[in-house]
Amino acid sequence: MKKGQILLGLVLSMGIVFSAQASDSRDKAYFSSVMTILRTHIDTLLYLTNTPSKHSDNVVRHAIAINQTMGLFDHMDWTPARLAKLNLINGDIHTKAEEFNLYAKEARKNSKKLIRASKKWLVDGKQPQFVEAINKLSTSCNQCHLQLKDKQAPTLMTYNME
Predict the structure, then answer these.
(1) Among 43, 46, 96, 114, which is disulfide-ready with 63 (CB 3.0 to 4.6 Å)?
(2) Residue span of the structural domain in which 105 resides
(3) pTM
């Protein structure tokens, strides 16, 4: 093998490694961005629940936005190998990959319940079903958040009616 071929092989190998690292970095940034969108809508819902205003009728729109954003989790790569590369979680990655998929499905189901409950709240003016739905969504989100290293996602608070 000639020196030029060896050098070319090394350069190509380094390019592949750097490209994979850049992809991992982009994946983490994307994941973080999606989580920020969710947090913003959930925080806004809690604000609208605690502080009735002329914007309170937007609870349905925020609930729909949460559900649509939850749909983005269906396309994230929760395989054990990917989780290990991203270094996001504590514990056994094989178990966690299966759990993450279950958590994502549960959160999506709860986000659909939140839409129905927010519509009902607007019609009858009563919050109990809405509060129950947002608390279930927060609980399902927290199941996943607790698995992440270094508290990369905050624990969502549940809402208590006075």
Answers:
(1) 114
(2) 24-151
(3) 0.74
Q: Is 1 a member of any domain?
A: no
We report the CATH number of the domain holding residue 93 as 1.20.120.230
d(C-alpha 74, C-alpha 72), whole Å: 5
- Token reading at 15: 């390019």
17 falls within a domain: no
Which residue, among 156, 122, 155, has the nearest Cα to 49 in the 3D structure? 122
Query: Tens digit of pLDDT for each residue in 89-147?
Result: 666 666 667 777 788 888 899 999 999 999 998 899 888 898 899 889 888 888 877 77
Burial of 158 (0-12, 13-18, 19+ CB in 10 A): middle
Count each helix (H run) and each strand (E run) in the chain, helices first: 5, 0
- Could you report the per-residue pLDDT of 23-55, keeping only the tens digit for each? 667 877 887 788 888 888 888 888 888 777 788
| Domain presence at residue 13 | no
Burial classification of residue 26, based on how many CB atoms lie within 10 Å of its CB (0-12 exposed, 13-18 middle, 19 or more buried): exposed
Cα(14)–Cα(22) distance, rounded to whole angstroms?
12
